[in-house]
Structure formats: C-alpha cells, structure tokens
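Sequence dictates fold. Below is an illustrative record:

_____
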Amino acid sequence: MLAVALLSFLATPASARSSLHLGPLPGTLTLFAGAAALQLVPLPFEWLQTASPHAPDVVRALDLALLAHPDRHPLSIAPPLTAIGLTLFASFALLVVGTARLSTMRGARGLAHAIASIGVLLAMAGIIQKPLFTGKIYGFWTPEAAGEPFGPFVNKNHFAGWMVMALPFTLGLLCGGIARGMRHVKPDARDRLLWLSSPEANRLVLLAVASAVMALALVLTMSRSGISATMLAVALTSVVASRRLGTRTRRTIVTGYLVFMVVVVAAWVGVDTIGTRFASADWSELNGRRGAWADAAGIASKFPLTGTGLNTYGVATLFYQHHDLAYHYAEAHNDYLQLAAEGGLLLTVPAVLCVAALGAVVRKRFKEETSSSSYWVRVGAVTGLAAIALQETVEFSLQMPGNAALFAVLCGIALHGSPERAALPASKSPNRPN
C-alpha cells in the first residue's frame, strides 16, 4: 500500500503539484502522524505513569522484555501494532494527496468511471454468490473467522461500507452526465429521440444500470447501517440535484430516477423483508452495541490524554472489556469511540483538525468550480464520504484496507483542483508573478 501511495504521489509532475493548494491539510495530516509517532517514543516509567497512569500495569502484564529493561516504555501499550497503524495512515495520507494531484492534472472523470466499473462488477459478484454460497468466498477461500460473507468481504457490513461510498459517487457521475446531456440538442421530439442513440446517452444508461445494480447488492446484504447510510446519500443527492441542475427537465429526470431506483430495489428484495430486518433489531441495546460502546468509553476515560496507542484497541479490551464476555471485541463498532480510546486527546485533536481542514479545502473547491463535470464528481465524492461517516458510528468498515483505500481516493477526488487551472503555464498562474 505504501508503494502504491508513493507512486500515485510521485507520478504527477512538479507543475501539477505546485498548482494544487491544499491549505492546512498537509500540516494537519503531518500533525496526526507526528502525534502517533510520539506514542512510540520510549519514556521513563515515571513519565509514563504521569501521562497515562493505567499504562504501566498493562505493559508489565504484556511485555516480558520489561524484565530486562524495566525503566522505559512507549505510550503505546503495543508498540508494534501502533507502528503498523502509523505506516498505514502515512500510506493512505499519501494516497489522498497523490489522488488529488493526479486528478488535478488529468481530471477525475476517468478515475470516477473506473470506480463505477469496479463497483458494478463487485456488486454482481455479491449478487451471484449470495444464493450459491457454500462457505467459501468466490468458491475458493474459506474465511478464517466466522462471519456473514458477501462478495469478497467476510463481513456483509463491510461490503455495504464499500458500496455506501461507491454508489453515491456513481450517482454524482450520473448527475454530471445529465447536467451536460442534450445541451446542444434542439428541444423538439425528433432531435431528442435521435440523441437517445448517441454515445453520450448510452453512457448515461450504463451509469443508471450500474447504480441500480450496486443499490440492489447493498440492500441484499440486509445491512441496516448500510441501508440507512445509503438512504442518506440518496436524499443528499436529490437535494443537491434539485438546487443545482439548471432546467426543470433535468431535475425531474434525476429525481424520478432516484425514486425509481429505490422503488425497484425495494420491490425486488421485498419491502416486508427489509421492514422485518429493521424490526428485528434490539434497539434498546443498540442491537448489541451498547456494551461495546460502554467498554470503549471506559477505555477512553482511563487513557484520556495519550490513549492506549493507535491500532491497539484489541489489546486494550483484553484487560478492560466488561460486557458480552462470550466474545472478544477487537473493535469498538464505532470508529469515533475507538479513536478516542486509542489516541486520547493526543490523536483526537489532530484528527478533528484534519477533518476541519478537509472541509475548508473542499468548500473552497466548490466555490472555485467552473466545470459541471468536476462539480458533480466532487458532489458524488463528498456524498460518499458523508454516508460512510454515518455508517462508522455503528461499524468499523474503514478498518478494512479496501474500504480505506476507496475512502482515501474519494478524499483525493473531493480535494482535486480544476484541471483547467492546473493547465495554466507557470508564467500565467494567478499565484505567481509574471
């Protein structure tokens, strides 16, 4: 992953790098990485006791090497796991910046079409595998852990997490095509019918079918979090389309298609089946998550300043899990609580700054946008990010490498600058002297 991220970062020429201004985002990403690296610095036990009073007891129980070196230990209760987490974060951060720069140079539509193509293939794999599943993913690989596989994912909620990002992104691409469609077509019926046979119209039909297939696969998972997040994404897309599409005809087409897609998918799966799935949840216990969240909050309260260490939650629950003891919870089923437990204020403050910086840059990009295509691709990326942010309140989909990679790519697309701006010669750049 680090190699791929470095290639995506280095593949862009210096002109594209200099034309893309990400504001404070690189600084906040570096701040988060630095804070995580600080969790790996060996400290005297007296300092460790002061910064994280519960950490010495845990590390003494875990680390036999302390018998030989009893005087120093990092803030992280499991430094090797934190080192892995830091490496992954650095890789995905580079992937975000590399994607933003590559999209600035070449435009984001090509990458968007590639994600839509992968999404429909992944959806079809899940749909076909569902009735034929014999315990082996793709018919070859048996999952090491128990779960409810769907497609290539061992956990159906994680498959839904990938689709929660890819589906609204594809819908954004579709809206962009509709916004551009028929712009040179005369308003009479004959010319409109002739346009329907054009390559542009055929691409829109393919995108519409791809979106419907992805929506069907997502609902077939019966993932309540995935379905809820998708409904949020569809609603956001509908609201933006109703405000931003130029003509009433285009607004009607988009709204009509979204309603049609929801109705067809619900009818195919069965409204009663979906309703029963939601009704079967134990909402008083947050469908079994109340205990896991209480444990995560408890760990966060014991390590409020420096956390247990990035990527160490599964180790911390060996000592501090008090609910549902029939299972070991290596994840908090809420990535926000897990970050608070693993990072304390040391990581949560930089994380909040990263999100704020991302929002500020994306908002600036929307204000600067002059291309309809780039605008709607960006809308799709932001909508996908909002949808997965909702799902992460009850799941840990972004801890899956495939989902994290797509998340990073969508962040990069949301941040990318206008290709027209990037193409300006250095001497003509508004930010450089003549």
User: Anything to note?
Assistant: The longest helix spans residues 335-368. The two ends are 40 Å apart (CA to CA).
